[in-house]
Amino acid sequence: MAQKQDNLIVVLDIGSAWTRVLAADVNEGVLRYRGHGAVESVGMRKGLIAELGPAAKAVRAASEQAEHVARMNIDECVAGVGGPHVRGLNTNGGFQLSRGMREITHEDVRAAVDRARAIERPPDREILHLLPRQFILDEQPGIFDPVGMVGARLEVELHIATCSGSALQSTVTCANRAGLEVSEAVLESLASAECTLSADERELGVCLLDVGAHSSDLAVFFEGAVAYTASVPIGGAHFTNDLAIGLQLPLAQAEELKRQYGNAVVTAVPQLATIEITNPQGAAATLPLRMIAEILEPRARELMYYVKESLRHGGVMEALGAGCVLTGGGSMLAGMLDVTESQLRVPARAGLPVRLPQMPVDLNHPAWAAAIGMVLYTHRTKMTRASEDHSLRAKLRAMFAASF
After folding, report:
1. Angle, CA 62 vertex, CA 329 and CA 380 arms, to 5°
2. Which of 2, 23, 229, 254 has its CA 20 to 30 A from that of 131?
3. Which domains does the chain have, with CATH numbers?
4. Which keywords does UniProt give here (predicted)?
5. Is the confidence at residue 29, as pLDDT, over 50?
6. How does residue 47 score in pLDDT terms, banded at 50, 70 and 90?
7. Is the dihedral of CA 342, 344, 346, 351 positive or negative?
8. Cα 133 versus chain centre, distance
């Protein structure tokens, strides 16, 4: 097998239902697919790692699948973070420039961000992302990049995405046991937004809802920046559990019924439509399709109720000019878009991830949005850092030349 390449990007998505590894590389400036692996998750409970050993074996299996397809060694990854322990908050801070009016530098921006992030938080919370919403230069708001501008006072409005420190450490330890070093952690709702939202939607205001197995993560964008992040404790597995209990069926059979015949809107199902199923005793039985929808619709409405309450709590309910975009494996239930529109009173659409060059068609699915988005996010941040380093080196060379 080929050795590790410096331009390789590998991401790890440990979900409640599936563990996914996706590898891509940059060839002549173009990001392209290299390989992937996906296995059913084990050792998970309610969206969190409950047993490190089994979870690490799943990560190792998915990584080996990706290595086989990519024909290269994988020993480092970017890990996704999501679930009910994710929280976000908005803050602000700034300072008066010491020498009056002068040009704003990268160091000034970092200083303003540091002052905005200097807030008290519980000791078990870890900061995932510091996301500037806007900079304010001499009381002039709406600035996204103040570097190079001239002013006397710089302020920043900042969104801070945090997660449980123990949950994050469990993810890192799990990856380490599987032979992977975690270089960075990325909030999965932001990653999903990276590959599903348009620039216009981010500007007008949009809610990205990533429906996972045991939770659904939200990220709201307004005027091009992140305005709110949160999570609600309902996901696709709750729909399956409801079916299993309501119809007295094994979970695997309930999941299959949900995928093939489920609908979140009762009236969308023909009243006389039926299917034949085999009950756990092995006997054939006739099941009205509307009975499945009658079980699923209340759960869909409950999910959207919690989403609405979360948006109201965050003060962004009125900021969704472009509506709501649903992604994640749990968003594929028929009728979910209709329930979203009726409950949130905004337009809704399905969020399919963009396709990477050479990527298999079956990965163009909402369940892969977080992984594909993490690849795009990691690539973009690497390019940004490289550009900043190049700019700094150029300034240093100019200063050195000027001194002689």
Report:
1. 70
2. 23
3. 87-162 (3.30.1490.110), 197-351 (3.30.420.40)
4. Cell cycle, Cell division, Cell membrane, Membrane
5. yes
6. confident
7. negative
8. 18
pLDDT at 328 over 60: yes
List 94's β-bridge partners, or say none: 155
Q: Which of 151, 139, 185, 199 is nearest to 354 (CA)?
A: 199
**What whole-number percentage of the chain has pLDDT above 90?**
84
Angle at alpha carbon of residue 109, lines to 104 and 114, rounded to 5°? 145
Dist CA 374 CA 80 (whole Å)? 7
Strands 125-137 and 153-164: antiparallel
C-alpha dist (Å) from residue 163 to 156, 207, 223: 22, 20, 25
- Position 119 scores a pLDDT of 85
Backbone angles phi, psi at 11, to 5 degrees: -125, 150
| Residue 30 in tokens | 């173009």
Contact between 188 and 128 (Cβ < 8 Å): no
From residue 295, how far is each of 266, 286, 299, 303, 333 by CA, in Å?
9, 16, 7, 13, 13
Instruction: State the pTM of this model.
Output: 0.90
Burial track 244-278 (b if 16+ CB lie within 10 A, e otherwise) = beebebeeebbbbbbeebbbbbbeebeeeeeeebe
Burial 77-97 (b: 16+ CB within 10 A, else e): bbbbbbbbbbbbebbebbeeb
Residue 233 phi/psi, 5-degree rounding, is -85, 45
Residue with tokens 């173009």: 30
